[in-house]
Specification:
24% of the residues lie in helices and 22% in strands. With 294 residues, it is an alpha+beta fold. The chain has a domain of 124 residues: Distorted Sandwich (Glucose Permease (Domain IIA)). Helix 1 packs across helix 4. The two termini are 92 Å apart.
């Protein structure tokens, strides 16, 4: 599109008869101003006098030059929108605020850190650590129960499980004139027996009085003994984790019925009452009833 650089017509000059009349050369307008007017006005500039009058440019009969008219048109089209205070410009129309400008959000400023903020950060850090610890405990319990153990707890960072879903029938102490060094949990033959906690298989197989047994050596030096089992599912030297199935409830040896005989040996070999030992760690087998909530 060729920009129209003249906004008014020149009256032709009379010439003698027979002399060829050439059109009057339009006024020369600065290339920069023509470019601005063409880009800002486009077709409006090409409309000539009518559009110029609509935009409020003064009359074309000698009141203002073409260059002045283009200057006002360019100023109207190219004025930046700003809320800053500027000196009044008498040659350009008043700037109109941008539509929707009132919805622009001012950049937020970050609050300054003070002593109170430092305390809050410390609390958040502590909460995060507690959350990580709780998640670790949950994973340990879930892992310990993944093979079917009826209950699991975490004591001093280590998981422990209820060794079987049997019902408590006999405690530690004298019985029928002899010392009973463990506790009994009655359950049907074949009921799974689980490793009380992490350890290494120290014994597995036939045993006098127990018929068959499994003995686990734990990392703290203690041992757990599982007697009268039906069969062993582990081998000597095998590492096991809390909740791993290691044997089945049986009725072998000197037994009056299917049950698990559980003993706890201290690191020096002495036998301790399993009931308070387990209760101290969160497992109350005395109220075991054989269900999953035992």
């Amino acid at each position: 599109m060729r920009p129209v650089v003249s906004a008014s017509r020149s009256r032709p000059t009379a010439h003698p008869a027979g002399e060829q009349q050439l059109p009057q050369t339009p006024p020369v307008v600065s290339r920069a101003r023509v470019t601005v007017a063409a880009a800002a006005g486009g077709a409006l500039v090409a409309a000539g006098q009518t559009v110029a009058g609509t935009l409020g440019i003064p009359g074309l009969a000698g009141e203002s030059s073409v260059e002045e008219s283009y200057a006002k048109l360019s100023a109207s089209a190219m004025l930046p929108v700003s809320t800053e205070s500027r000196p009044a410009d008498t040659t350009a129309p008043t700037a109109t605020p941008a539509i929707g400008g009132e919805q622009l959000v001012q950049p937020a400023t970050l609050p300054s850190l003070d002593d109170t903020t430092e305390v809050d950060v410390a609390s958040i850090t502590k909460a995060a650590r507690l959350g990580e610890k709780a998640a670790k405990v949950e994973r340990a319990i879930s892992g310990a129960m993944s093979h079917g153990a009826p209950k699991a707890v975490v004591y001093d960072g280590d998981p422990l499980v209820m060794p079987t879903s049997g019902r408590f029938t006999s405690g530690f102490g004298a019985r029928w004139g002899v010392q009973h060094y463990g506790i009994d949990l009655a359950a049907p033959i074949g009921t799974p027996i689980f490793a009380l906690t992490d350890g290494v298989v120290e014994k597995a197989g036939p045993a006098s009085g127990f018929g068959m047994w499994v003995v686990l050596k734990h990392t703290d030096g203690t041992s757990s003994v599982y007697g009268h089992i039906n069969r062993s599912l582990v081998e000597v030297g095998q590492e096991v984790r809390a909740g791993d199935e290691i044997a089945e409830v049986g009725n072998r040896g000197q037994s009056t019925g299917p049950h698990l005989h559980l003993e706890i040996w201290e690191s020096d070999g002495s036998k301790t009452n399993p009931l308070p030992w387990l209760i101290q760690r969160g497992l109350d087998v005395a109220h075991a009833t054989g269900g999953q909530d035992a």
